[in-house]
Specification:
Blueprint lengths: L1 E6 L5 E7 L2 E8 L5 H15 L9 E5 L5 H18 L3 E4 L1 H6 L8 E9 L2 E10 L2 E12 H11 L3 E4 L3 H12 L3 E3 L9 H13 L18 H12 L1
Parallel strand pairs: 1-4, 4-5, 6-9, 9-10
Antiparallel strand pairs: 1-2, 2-3, 6-7, 7-8
Helix pairs in contact: 1-2, 4-5
Length: 235
């Protein structure tokens, strides 16, 4: 099976192609260009370099969030358009789990984080049991200080991954001390190869979406929507 995967929930855009359970190509770019400007050109370039026709794609896999509202919308909309045009299914993959794959097989707890503003983060807590990624704390928008104290009670090393970890490293150090470990820069971008890898289980268990059922995962309202509702309440 040939799987075209992409991830746009954060600053970087990443695309990958898996053929018969083997990654044959992957591209990750983090620039000022909007994902809407670079995603399709990246997909076209990847298919060209791997000598693959779009008609050879059997399934899509996309990171559906949480993360940047705009980035998620672009990724999901692109997946919907391709799924409809090609008549193929889509695997919806958690963007937080994609980040957790950067710490594959770690014996530490893994805590992917994305800045959700107002001192909140999109996060969850995971651990690896062999080749299985197990959820310890469900994905949600958490107050970061409260999340740190939840982790402190677990009294074990925690690896933080994600492009926003540097914003919170002082808080991590203050609460968790040496048990709070921030991943190296190369481990902080979600990779489309991991999206494809996580999609395999969904394909095997027939947990697939289509162009009409695929939905983004925001976990909370966009800031603009929240501010609008607050203004309406005051009227």
């Amino acid at each position: 099976m040939n799987i075209l995967a992409f991830e746009t929930s954060g600053m970087a855009a990443s695309v990958a192609l898996m053929k018969e359970n083997r990654i044959v190509g992957e591209m990750t770019v983090s620039t000022r260009l909007n994902h809407s400007e670079k995603l399709m050109p990246m997909i076209d370039e990847l298919l060209e370099k791997t000598e693959t026709s779009v008609k050879d794609i059997d399934a899509l896999a996309v990171g559906t969030g949480p993360g940047s509202f705009t980035g998620i919308r672009i990724g999901v909309s692109t997946a919907k358009g391709l799924a409809l045009a090609l008549g193929i299914p889509v695997a919806a993959v958690s963007s937080l789990k994609v980040l957790a794959c950067n710490a594959m097989y770690s014996d530490m707890l893994v805590c992917p984080i994305m800045d959700a503003r107002r001192n909140q983060v999109y996060s969850g807590i995971f651990r690896w049991e062999g080749v299985e990624l197990v959820e310890v704390l469900k994905e949600d928008a958490y107050d970061f200080e409260e999340l740190l104290f939840v982790l402190k009670k677990k009294d074990c090393p925690v690896l933080f991954v994600g492009q926003d970890t540097y914003k919170f490293k002082d808080q991590i150090k203050k609460v968790l001390d040496e048990k709070g470990i921030v991943a190296m820069p190369q481990a902080n971008f979600p990779r489309a190869a991991s999206v494809a890898g996580l999609a395999i289980k969904k394909i095997e268990e027939n947990e697939m979406e289509n162009a009409f059922t695929l939905k983004p995962v925001y976990l909370r309202q966009a800031e603009a929507e929240r501010q609008y509702q607050e203004r309406m309440k005051k009227k």
